[in-house]
């Protein structure tokens, strides 16, 4: 592993894990370099990519002083993100997947303005989802969101508002996180799991005490890209989601007060997602765990979990699962 030196202090560390994406990499990197705010380091992590990505990022680094490069053996998305975190120096950390991009060159400036005002531990923003070339994007978490209800002094009220309105989700890439939170709790992504963001974001709910929101959906997410990590791995995806949900349920039961309900509700939403993508599951053990973990649905702060519970009360667990699977297929 190697990285270029970067002595200056910066506001942001933008961490990009890179593997086999030379077709998308220029758009990704240039969407950061085009930002009107240059108070950042761009940490490009070559995770042993077999294509031309390693040379491409070296060329970028040779031309831009804001870029730091890491070359490492292939270890997966979590390993690459962790390698980036090891050398990050920014006050805040942002993750950007290398097949995605930003489409607003004022995003970093505007987010910095928000955070300079709130000094929040964590800021959330919406995104756009692209299912294929030439297709119009759909919006992730874009609605009438009241920023004041997120920046309010009460952590419990802020978290409740975000979870009730499905604002806080299991994605590392739609959050800006104070690096001291990550360092103080030695936070790392688990290697070898899909949905590695889930428990990482769940832990952030416990560790962070203040939150903020930026309303522009500047993050452009390529959904189900051919060759992506999750493509064609339904059973592992559901199994890993259930592992995280089970861990989260145990974690929620170990704490008391309002945060028990709120943490449980965060995982209840993710469990509902697991139900919806489970149509391809054939493994009996996974199916059994899927049914057993419906206990999570009792944590129903999320308005979407409340809807799932209404269907389940009328139709039962099995038909509810089929309904959610059908809904997911229609959305695709």
Plain-language structure description:
Helix 6 runs parallel beside helix 10, helix 8 packs antiparallel against helix 10 and helix 10 crosses helix 13. The strands form two sheets. A seven-stranded mixed sheet has the order 3-2-1-4-9-6-10, sandwiched between helices. Strands 5-11-7-8 form a four-stranded mixed sheet. The chain contains 13 helices and eleven strands. About 2% of the residues have low confidence. The chain is α/β, with parallel strands linked by helices and 332 residues long. It has two domains: 211 residues, Spore Coat Polysaccharide Biosynthesis Protein SpsA, Chain A (Alpha-Beta Complex), CATH 3.90.550; 98 residues, no CATH class. Helix 1 links the parallel strand 1 and strand 2. The relative contact order is 0.11.
Give the topology, please.
Blueprint: E1 12-18, H1 25-33, E2 40-47, H2 53-63, E3 67-72, H3 77-87, E4 92-95, E5 101-102, H4 107-118, E6 122-124, E7 127-130, E8 138-140, H5 147-150, H6 155-164, E9 175-178, H7 179-184, H8 197-207, E10 211-213, E11 219-222, H9 234-253, H10 258-276, H11 284-292, H12 303-315, H13 317-331
Parallel strand pairs: 1-2, 1-4, 2-3, 6-10, 7-11
Antiparallel strand pairs: 4-9, 5-11, 6-9, 7-8
